[in-house]
Every structure is written in C-alpha cells, then in structure tokens.
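Record type: monomer structure entry
Structure origin: computed from sequence
Chain ID: A
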Amino acid sequence: MLNVNKHEIEGGVQVELIGAIEENVNFEELIGAFQGTLFIKCRGVTRINSVGVKTWMRYFQALKAQGKVFKFLEISHPIIEQFNMISNFACGGETLSVCLPFSCGVCQKEFIALSSTADLKANALKVPDAKCEKPNCGAQFDDDPEEYLYFLQE
C-alpha cells in the first residue's frame, strides 16, 4: 500500500511517497492535479514490483507528454534499483538527491545519508563520508558505489 502526503510549496507541489508501489497504486488519484513543478520525495518507498514499475512509467511518461516538470528527491534503494535497470525510469524527470546506505562496523547501526546528485557528479560519483551518531564509531558505505550510482554516470 502506498500513502502520499501532498502539500503546496513555492513553485509547485511536493508529494512524499510512503510504502510499496504495487498493482493497486493509482498515481493520478493519489497525486491529483497540480500546478507548477511536481517534486516527488521517494525516501519512504520500501518496495516496487513489476506492475508498480509499469504504473510508474505510465504516469510519469504521461506527465512528460503533457509538458509537466517533475523532479525526484531522496531516491530510496528500491527506486535506485529501477533507475539502474531501466534506462528511462526517470521518464524525463530530474533527480536532485539520493539516499545513501551506510553501516557502522562498531555499533552495527545502519543509517541513511542524503546527498545531492549535483555534489555526487561534481566529485566523480565519490560517495561522501558519513559519521555514525555515536562517538568513536565509524561508518562505511553499505553498497558498491559504482553499481549503486550507475544511473548517474553520463
């Protein structure tokens, strides 16, 4: 089940997607009409199945065909996997930021750090350092940076 929190912001509308994108998702109904730019915050997306992928593609391709501007924020791991597997998964939308998974080898805590795609591209897709919130702990990126950020390569 997917929940959508929607609110108007300067220049458009921001929606926050929370949950799974599956066969029962109707983006037209959940997001509704909007003016200006649509900002889609994806941090809360926990899963997307094959029917969800088709639904996503259909919705965002239709927005693109209508000349709508949309931008993705805080892309979660399930969405990043789709960006990496499907060459046009963004459907013409711009990706502004991604969630980066980290884990601490000392306290075993896993956490997410955010990074703008502009910063990542400016630094040749080098994952920035992140710190665990506990003192005397360290953190390391919890994936293969080259594979995880493949969709950002030009």
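Annotation 1: Strands lie at 2-9, 12-21, 37-48, 70-73, 94-95, 97-103, 110-116, 140-141.
Annotation 2: Helices lie at 27-31, 50-65, 77-85, 117-122, 145-148.
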